[in-house]
Amino acid sequence: MKVGKVTHYYDNIGVAILELKKTLKVGDKIKFEGHDADFEQEVTSLQVDHEPVEKASKGEMVGLKTDKKVKEGTEVEKV
Question: What's the CATH number where 67 sits?
Fold first, then answer.
């Protein structure tokens, strides 16, 4: 189930900005696919407007620490 797409990646801090199409919460397992990315990870933290949140909803832009580098346009799925 697709939950969003990477709109920006901050290489220096390893954080991806996602535009959500579905709800995402801390503890969810997600998969990054496309644009040379193909890996799974658990969501360990989320931020909205630089504030930590436990859950974010459809339409929100969230910051998410990633285990590996990702590129803009990479699709994110819940697994």
Answer: 2.40.30.10
